[in-house]
């Protein structure tokens, strides 16, 4: 199950999505929004997604994790829109017969998500300026 | 015959363009290279940052130039920062 939502993430609800009688472990990863970036104070964040493609890419990643670790359940929920500092921006829950598979699959999913899923974070700083993470502040490549 | 495609922009690329999408008409037989060429003409930042931008066609990343057909949707994907 993969989902994008504007509302706050309810972790109990995410855990229920992966509960299974044949699971011996549930691993949950929660990414939260930091109050600083590049030594600057962050007030809030805004997430934008290419929704259709993000869901497709998240499905592809969870299917790959399921194939590799034979999971009994997997759920990925990512916020879009405004997210306040300290809130959960993403939650990944994985259930598996044993904990080793659950840990590995959970890590694989978040690491891959951060590389490939078309979601972008814009930071709003305490001084009112905003910047897209990744490219906004970077200097152009030199050739 | 021309090929008509929709090009969508996200995040910083959307702000460069000042719009979320444009309709482009490119010659029959064109590839994603023709889309790059038109984008660079409209906004020089696409040239500056080309190495860091990825394209997706119909919701799948493409790494090499691919042929486009009318109705295809091309997305310009800046470096992602979800999580």
Task: Describe the overall structure.
The complex is a heterodimer of chains A (143) and B (83). Chain A has 143 residues and is an alpha+beta fold. In chain A, 31% of the residues lie in helices and 38% in strands. Chain A contains three helices and nine strands. Chain A has helices at 11-18, 51-69, 99-116, and strands at 2-5, 25-32, 36-37, 40-49, 73-79, 81-84, 88-96, 119-125, 130-132. In chain A, strands 3, 4, 6, 8 and 9 form a five-stranded antiparallel beta sheet that branches. A four-stranded mixed beta sheet of chain A has the order 1-5-7-2, sandwiched between helices. In chain A, a hairpin with a 4-residue loop joins strand 8 and strand 9. In chain A, helix 2 (51-69) runs antiparallel to helix 3 (99-116). The longest helix of chain A is centred in the middle third of the chain and has 19 residues, at 51-69. With 83 residues, chain B is of the alpha+beta class. Chain B has helices spanning 11-17, 32-42, 45-48; strands at residues 2-9, 21-27, 54-57, 60-62, 73-77. Classes of the chains: A alpha+beta (143), B alpha+beta (83). At the A-B interface, strand 4, helix 2, helix 3 and strand 8 of A face helix 1 of B.
């Amino acid at each position: 199950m993969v989902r994008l939502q504007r509302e706050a993430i309810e972790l109990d609800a995410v855990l229920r999505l992966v509960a299974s009688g044949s699971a011996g472990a549930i691993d949950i990863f929660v990414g939260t929004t930091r109050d600083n970036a590049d030594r600057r104070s962050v007030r809030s964040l805004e997430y934008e997604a290419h929704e259709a493609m993000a869901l497709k890419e998240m499905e592809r990643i969870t299917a790959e994790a399921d194939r590799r670790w034979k999971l009994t359940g997997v759920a990925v929920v990512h916020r879009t829109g405004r997210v306040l500092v300290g809130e959960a921006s993403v939650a990944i829950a994985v259930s598996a017969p044993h904990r080793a598979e659950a840990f590995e699959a959970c890590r694989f999913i978040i690491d891959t998500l951060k590389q490939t899923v078309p979601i972008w974070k814009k930071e709003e700083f305490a001084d009112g300026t905003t910047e897209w993470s990744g490219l906004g502040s970077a200097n152009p490549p030199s050739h | 015959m021309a090929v008509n495609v929709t090009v969508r922009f996200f995040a910083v690329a959307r702000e460069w363009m000042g719009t979320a999408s444009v309709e482009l008409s490119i010659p029959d037989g064109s590839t994603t290279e023709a889309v790059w060429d038109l984008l660079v003409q409209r906004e020089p930042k696409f040239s500056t940052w080309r190495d860091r931008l990825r394209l997706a066609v119909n919701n799948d990343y493409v790494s090499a130039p691919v042929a486009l057909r009318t109705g295809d949707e091309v997305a310009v994907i800046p470096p992602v920062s979800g999580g």
